[in-house]
Amino acid sequence: MALNSSALLDEVKTVLVETLAISDRAASIDANTELLGNLPELDSMAVLELVAALEQQFGIAVDDEDVTAEVFETLGSLTTFVAEKRN
């Protein structure tokens, strides 16, 4: 069952917000929100936690070489990555 992009974006956002414990800022996060360098909570350890949470939530496998600055640039780029991994 494929989710439409808006639903997938919301689901990835939920994983991000829960993993980083930033629910107080969830309303201000959208597809264009910059992640790396913009969210102080998203350090190298948090990236690993986020990857693990995304793998569990979406049943995907993320390789080390997949974890790039481009993938984690914005919520939209992260959602696109998850969508590609699911297909």
From TrEMBL:
InterPro entries: ACP-like_sf, PP-bd_ACP. Residues 6-86 form the Carrier domain. It comes from the Bacteria. Signal peptide: none annotated. This is Phosphopantetheine-binding protein. It comes from Actinoplanes sandaracinus. The lineage of its organism: Bacteria, Bacillati, Actinomycetota, Actinomycetes, Micromonosporales.
